[in-house]
Amino acid sequence: MFILFSNQALLEFRKNLANPLAFVPTMGALHDGHLSLVRAAKEKNFTVLVSIFVNPLQFNNPDDLLKYPRTIQNDLNLLENEGVDAVYLPSVHHVYPPNNPSKQICLPNNAIESVFEGHFRPGHFNGVVQVLHRFFSLISPQSVFFGQKDLQQCMIVKLIIDEFFPNIQFNIVPTSREKSGLAMSSRNMRLSESELKRAEEIYVSLTALLTFDPSQIEVQIQRLKQYEIHTEYLSYIDLPNFEVSTSNTGNQAVIFAGYLGEIRLIDNLFL
Ligand code: AMP
Questions:
Q1: In sequence order, what DSSP letters do the residues of 46-70 get, joined into one string?
Q2: Claim: this prediction has a pTM higher than 0.85
Q3: pLDDT tens profile 135-147
Q4: DSSP letter string over 230-249?
Q5: Cis peptide leading into 20, omega within 30 of 0?
Q6: Confidence check: pLDDT of 74 > 80
Q7: Which of 150, 189, 266, 267 is the pocket-test mutation for ligand 1 (most atoms within 8 Å of CB)?
């Protein structure tokens, strides 16, 4: 497995690849959810490049950035075991060179950037757009793989691709869950044993909402409160625009974000 620290090394690796290239961007602290993206890419016989980069631009909360888990040696072992071809590990100054600020990338005016995650994490999606635009431009992958767990991010990525990279194939991989149903997340590492147990109730609530019934939303918010899970949003939304659903259209999801103690978790299910 190649470990690429610089853009130069990345461009060298990119030359003369036998198979088309799949790119899986991550922020590290890898778990089986991340590896499911790698496996999906490998199954389609791509050469697989994974990036590990904790993108400061997408953290609206400095404390969250500081405390974001970093487990690089373990990450590299996991990726090597999966047969990943190369890992790109840029440092912040490679991605955002101080003396060469690239222009800010804007998505066409689209409300999806400012609702739900965009509302509660101002600037978050702008950070996602900047870093992915840089990575996609540099890497020129044929295909990219993202997790359904970050559903709103998936819709933003789709917009980036439609607008700037129409030749990139976009893949969404279903959310990997613990046996309890809890969505795997790097942030789960920061939960206490009791919080981890209570976090399972998020999936219970989402499952209870699988049949479209807006009257049950408040019931579930109150139910989660009993487990000291504080909901930021729990909503039916229409896809792909993330507008609050007013009727049962069929192309929908139920989405959740909330806090257990200091830790913010998100999850969703398609209806
Ligand atoms: P992150 O490291 O959190 O930025 O995630 C990197 C990629 O892994 C994103 O496309 C996520 O949606 C995806 N991912 C994170 N958790 C899961 C999961 N439990 N199941 C599937 N994909 C996931």
A1: -EEEEEE---GGG-S-HHHHHHS--
A2: yes
A3: 999 999 999 999 9
A4: EEEEEEEEETTTTEEPSS--
A5: no
A6: yes
A7: 150
